[in-house]
Design a protein that fits this description.
Keywords: Membrane, Transmembrane, Transmembrane helix. By secondary structure, the protein is an all-alpha fold. The protein is built from 18 helices and 2 strands.
Length: 449
């Protein structure tokens, strides 16, 4: 998505007005491009693979799928989502700061922008049928992050460890609730198998667990049914996915807010500190890489090995929660992903500063500038390749084969995005979003010189 990232020339009368872009912060566009392309690495299995797709090879170190998965988990899982949120937070400052210097309020303009983004997200999830949409959440949570934009960076950055700890506690309480219901079910089920009469409480325990299984732990027959739906018509796919999208956007919204909000606040802090705008020295960026890899890599590798050993399948996961009331290893997640994400950003900045990979950087800049259009393009391509109303390739590919398609999409967007920007000021969706925000048609084509 094209997050607000540009420095604009404004002609101000009664309220902030848009103008043709005359300047952008290239490194922000480049980082956004990295996040946009990187997020597809984690999204594509959820377009294309059935539940439990990792189970056949998750412990098979001789399988190429295992090592593809390992690289994704260690270097990308959680990091790209965090990077997206980080840049979105920085974009809040970029969108509002110059307008606010005029003394005019930008609040309604920004909120109108976020309201349209939220509506785009609903359409993305329920019409294009991408259950992993983030536009809806960014629109809503962006309105919250806006309220913190003037806070001191040190306080903004504290949001990440605070939310990480709160998230760990909340997740632990949730899992302990699941664990308690599972133990009650096991006890009641054991009595039932022995032929004992069950009390109303024990009967309810069995029914409660069956409901949890239906919602969170589908059995092989249900997995087969879900796969058949995904290989069906548009209406069949929609019937399967829309309730999941609805639950994520409304039923579980309260659980999704805090992580994204904390990361947006961190993005605002890092922008104010100059980290995202290359105001740090090269020595500081190199130090960030050494610290990030020195601490983050051992943590994420340990976590990956631990989870591979203890959670290879549903049965092992249930056995673990039966025997453990708390999984302390979960504390690692938020800290290792922030560290590795900071490494990614520092590496990109150093490469850019040294003038390396200029053609790639130009492509990433353009991809980032057209990120809204490119993000939706991911969904259009993947749904038409994998869903039943398209090429019907759902559950047909090996896991590692998905990344040939990812590479193809990357190359296409890296090539076509700079070409598009030679003729047009914005991507088509960026232009539409901008026009809706300002309430009038915006310039689209570049003027011939």
């Amino acid at each position: 998505m094209n997050l607000p990232s540009n420095t604009e020339v404004e002609q101000i009368n009664e309220a902030p007005k848009p103008a043709v872009l005359t300047d952008r912060i290239d490194i922000i566009d480049i980082i956004r491009g990295v996040a946009l392309l990187g997020i597809l690495i984690l999204n594509i299995p959820f377009f294309s693979m059935p539940e439990y797709f990792t189970e056949p090879w998750v412990q098979d170190t001789g399988n190429v799928n295992f090592w593809t998965h390992a690289v994704n988990i260690i270097f990308f899982e959680g990091k790209m989502r965090a990077l997206f949120s980080l840049v979105f937070g920085a974009g809040i400052i970029l969108f509002t700061s110059k307008k606010e210097k005029t003394g005019k309020s930008v609040t309604w303009l920004f909120y109108k922008r976020m309201i349209w983004l939220t509506l785009f997200g609903l359409a993305h999830a329920h019409l294009l049928l991408w259950v992993g949409d983030i536009l809806y959440f960014y629109g809503l949570i962006g309105m919250l992050a806006y309220l913190f934009r003037k806070m001191k960076p040190k306080y903004l950055a504290l949001g990440v460890p605070i939310v990480a700890i709160i998230g760990f506690v909340a997740n632990t309480l949730f899992m302990q609730d699941i664990r308690g219901k599972y133990l009650e079910y096991k006890e009641a089920n054991s009595l039932q198998e022995q032929g004992s009469a069950l009390t109303d409480t024990q009967t309810a325990a069995i029914e409660t667990w069956k409901e949890i299984q239906r919602e969170y732990i589908p059995n092989p027959e249900e997995v087969a049914e879900n796969t058949a739906l995904m290989k069906g018509s548009y209406s069949e796919v929609a019937r399967h996915l829309r309730p999941k999208a609805w639950d994520g956007q409304f039923k579980f919204l309260i659980f999704s807010i805090w992580d994204m909000l904390a990361l947006m606040m961190l993005g605002i802090a890092l922008f104010k500190w100059g980290f995202l705008t290359m105001k740090w020295t090269q020595a500081q960026y190199k130090k960030t890489i050494w610290i990030g890899y020195g601490i983050g890599l051992p943590l994420v590798i340990f976590s990956f090995i631990y989870n591979t050993i203890h959670f290879p399948n549903v049965e092992a996961g249930l056995k673990f929660i039966e025997e453990h009331s708390i999984n302390w290893v979960d504390l690692i997640y938020d800290f290792q992903r922030i560290l590795i994400m900071m490494v990614h950003v520092s590496t990109v900045i150093l490469l850019y500063q040294k003038g390396y990979l200029k053609r790639l950087m130009n492509g990433l800049r353009a991809v980032g500038q057209l990120a809204f259009t490119n993000y939706i393009m991911h969904s259009v391509i993947c749904t038409l390749v994998f869903y039943g109303y398209g090429l019907n390739q759902y559950a047909e590919w090996e896991y590692y084969q998905l990344y040939f398609l990812v590479l193809g999409i990357w190359v296409f967007q890296l090539v076509i995005s700079p070409i598009w920007l030679k003729k047009f000021l914005f991507g088509p969706l960026e232009w539409g979003w901008r026009s809706l925000t300002y309430g009038r048609m915006q310039p689209f084509r570049r003027k011939e010189i």
